[in-house]
Each structure stands twice: as C-alpha cells, then as structure tokens.
From TrEMBL:
Keyword list, A-Z: Membrane, Symport, Transmembrane, Transmembrane helix, Transport
Entry's localization field: Membrane
Transmembrane region(s): 12-30, 42-66, 87-107, 147-165, 177-197, 217-241, 253-275, 305-327, 348-367, 387-408, 428-448
Topology relative to the membrane: Multi-pass membrane protein
Pfam families assigned: SNF
Coiled-coil intervals: none
Source species taxonomy: Bacteria, Pseudomonadati, Bacteroidota, Bacteroidia, Bacteroidales
Protein species of origin: Bacteroides vicugnae
UniProt-listed InterPro entries: Na/ntran_symport, SNS_sf, YocR/YhdH-like
Protein name: Transporter
Length: 456
C-alpha cells in the first residue's frame, strides 16, 4: 500500500459515528416519515429494510473498500484503482454531486436554525394551522432570512471541516450523535404516550400490503440510497481515513442499523403525535415545518412548557442531524480540491464554502423572488434535488457496483473485505453476487423509473 501521511479517524467508535453521522440527516427525519406516510406505513418500512440490507449494505461495503484501498479523495480513488480508464468520471461526478447537494441541502438545514430560534422564543405559541402555513411560506420565500441562515449553517460546517478529520469531523460526531440519540429517545417517549397515539403506532407496525405496487419498491430503494449517503463517494472519502484494521462489513452493518433505527424512531416521533391530534401525514417540507409545530402546540395544549421543550428539542435534533451530513458532503469536495489542486485544506474549504453559499443563495431565492426563473421547467432548488437524488446518486450507485463487481481485481476486493484474510466474512460470496447482478439490475430499474421512462 502506498505510503500514507493522510489524516485518519482515531478510533473505531469515531469511524462508526462519523459514517453514521453522514447517513443520518434530513433524509431520515424529514424524508423517511413522508415516504412512509405516502406508501402504506409498515409495508413500506418492511420493503425499505429489505433494500437497506440487501442492496444498500453491499454497495456501502464497495464504497468503503474503494476508499480505503486507494486512500485518496473519491476522484483520485478511481484513478488509482483503474489508471487510464474512464472510471475516474464516477469519482468526479460524485464530487460534483456532493457540491450540488450541499448547496440545496444547506438551505433546508438553514431553515432548522430559524425554527430553533422561533421555538426557543416561544414563537409557536397560540398559532393556528393557517398561521403555521403562512408563516412558513412567508419565511421560505423571503429574500433575506433563509439566506442568512444558509450562510450561518455553511459557516458552522466550514468551522468543523477546517479543524480536520480527527479534531473536526470525528470529535463533532462523537458529541452530536449521542446527543441526537438521547433527544430522539426522549421525543419518542413523549410522542407515544400522548392520548390517541395508538393509531400512529399501529400505522407503523401493522403492514397494509394492499398499497404495495412496483412504485413502492422503487421509492423504498431510492430512499435507502439517499438515506445511506450512497452513490457519490461520501462514504468512500470517509473510508480513506479508516485504518487497516477497520472491519468494513461490520462498520457497514453498524451504520445501516443506526441509520434505519433513527429513521424508524423519527416515524415513532412524528406519526403518534400527528395521529393523536387527527392530522394525516402530509408531504415534503410541510410535514416538518408546518404540520409538526402545529402538532406540538395541539398535542400539549394543556401543558405549554412541554410544547415548548418538545419543539426546541425537535428542531435542535434536526439541525444536528443535518450538520453531520453537511460536514460529510463538504469533506468530499474539500478533500478533492485539497489533494488534486495542492491547495491547503483551509483554502480548499473556503472555496467550497464560498461556492456553496453562492449557489445556495440562488437555490434559496428560487423558492421566492426568483420563482419565475426555471431550467427544464424547474427552479434551481428543485433542479439540484432532481439532478442529484434522481440522476447522479442512482447512476453513481450503479457504477460503483459494476466497478467492484466486474472491473476490480477480485484479489483486491477479497483482501479489503477480509483484511488480508484475517477476518472471516461468511457473507462474502453473497456480497459479490449482489454487486455483480442484483444491484446493477435493481438500480437500473429505479433509475429508469425515476426518469419516467417506465412506470411500474
Ligand atoms: N444521507 C443524508 C441524509 O439522510 C443525505 C446525504 C446524501 C448525505 C448523500 C451525504 C451524501 O440526510
């Protein structure tokens, strides 16, 4: 292996918490409940679990092994493992996807800061549902406030990134992830003990297979990729900081389990609370930023202090989950600029932050004053979301499974997965089979479906 003077994660726990930090984000707490709500509750969750463990984890292992073997940023990784081939474009596409995702993800992440402030200054008290709708619409379309929060969120991310891999990423994950688990558990207990919460719990536990069709399978797969941060080299970049002793398969399992656990617990916060006040699960941003503050006020109308605490904690949770994800997105691009263009880490990070602020401002404005400016019929925010989540991530995942399953020398794959034969990995053959056949076929189906070429 090449001589290595790169940074490393300092501990096994750090490896798991940083990778889980990347995976756990707005995708778990905002997107997962809404997808579950739309696709039949428990039945969707069962299929989602199948997607995580059958497809997501093998691809995560593939990303891990590419990153750790090459010990380089995701663009260089493919250059090192497949010199002189076009595979390097997979890495470059990942860096671009990271940059674009960060630009619009930070807009929503910024909203969480506004909502923390709003909740902390008791701004939700006494509002009715109409007022929650209009205040969210007014806020998200205003030209100033969301931009200020977006810049603030990116500066916080920047501050952690420039501290480096161990002192920045690892340390912040070690503080934020346990805090996040504690907040989630408190919120779950509060939510499931509300009067009438049983209907929400039943929705999450009792599968209704009558709603399951091809589309549900495809949505569950798409959600699994987004939620596990797969397909754009995030976990590949993190794995380049893993040590030779890290058990890639075990780490992937831990990350998958934590990510799934958080998503399901987020469901246990949101559905029991929503059902208890008779609100149906709504879609997209409104579930978190319109419906939920309303739910908190109604559910705890007799005890305003609980409504207050519940709201502040929930948005703090959302902000922390988003932050550990924006850090991982930022790192993909920073590591690339730092290593490929010989810029100092600080300078690389400043370029990324500056670039994302620039693009992010336009994403934010595209929800308000620039609504009329569209490309292919989409505003910039929606365009970035579509381009990345629906095109670049599935395409990246497809390429990663083909690269590992077909192109890469099986000796390399074997030596990375088993740590040169020192680990017994009973599922080794299954992982290879999935990477070779199942994943490419399944991802092709999602991809084609999302582009609207077929409708299952
Ligand atoms: N997995 C993150 C979430 O659930 C989003 C993300 C996608 C982060 C891709 C990094 C890369 O919010």
């Amino acid at each position: 292996m090449a001589k290595n003077d790169r940074a490393n994660f300092g501990s096994k726990l750090g490896v798991i918490l940083a990778s889980a930090g990347s995976a756990v984000g707005l995708g778990n707490i905002w997107r997962f409940p809404y997808e579950t709500g739309n696709h039949g509750g428990a039945a969707f969750i069962l299929i989602y679990l199948g997607c995580i463990f059958l497809l997501g984890l093998p691809i995560m292992i593939a990303e891990f092994l590419i990153g750790r073997r090459s010990r380089a940023n995701t663009a260089r990784a493919y250059q090192k493992l497949a010199p002189g081939t076009h595979w390097r474009w997979v890495g470059r596409m990942g860096v671009l996807a990271g940059f674009l995702i960060l630009s619009y993800y930070a807009v929503v992440a910024g909203w969480t800061l506004e909502y923390i402030l709003e909740a902390a200054t008791n701004g939700f008290a006494g509002k009715n549902s109409g007022e929650f709708i209009s205040s969210f619409q007014q806020f998200s379309s205003s030209p100033w406030r969301p931009v200020v929060w977006l810049v603030a969120f990116l500066l916080i991310t920047h501050f952690i990134i420039v501290k480096g891999v161990e002192k920045g990423i690892e340390k912040s994950s070690k503080i934020m992830m346990p805090t996040l688990f504690i907040i989630i558990l408190i919120l779950v207990v509060c939510s499931v003990t509300l009067p009438g919460a049983g209907a929400g719990i039943e929705f999450l536990l009792k599968p209704d297979f009558s709603k399951v069709d091809g589309n549900v399978f495809l949505s569950a797969m798409g959600q699994a990729f987004f939620s596990l941060s797969l397909g754009m080299g995030c976990l590949c970049t993190y794995a380049s900081y893993f040590s030779k002793e890290t058990n890639l398969t075990k780490t992937a399992f831990s990350v998958g389990i934590i990510d799934t656990f958080v998503a399901i617990l987020a469901g246990f916060i949101i559905f029991p609370a929503a059902f208890s006040v008779g609100i149906q699960p709504d879609s997209g941003p409104s579930l978190i930023f319109i419906t939920l503050p309303n739910v908190f006020q109604q559910a705890f109308s007799g005890v305003p202090i609980l409504a207050y605490i519940f709201s502040v904690m929930f948005y703090a949770l959302l902000a922390m989950a988003a932050l550990t994800s924006t850090i991982s997105l930022h790192e993909v691009v920073t590591a690339y600029l730092h290593e490929e263009f010989k810029l100092s880490r600080g300078k690389a990070a400043r370029l990324v932050t500056g670039g994302c602020i620039f693009l992010g401002i336009f994403c934010s404005l595209s929800l308000g004053v620039m609504k009329g400016f569209t490309i292919f019929g989409l505003g910039l925010f929606d365009l970035f979301d579509f381009l990345t989540a629906k095109i670049m991530l599935p395409l990246g995942g497809l390429c990663i499974s083909l690269f590992t399953g077909w192109y890469l020398d099986k000796k390399i794959v074997w030596s990375e997965i088993t740590n040169d034969g020192s680990l017994k990995i009973p599922v080794y053959k299954l992982i290879i089979f999935i990477l070779k056949y199942i994943a490419p076929i399944a991802i092709s189906l999602i991809f084609i479906n999302e582009l609207g070429l077929i409708k299952l």
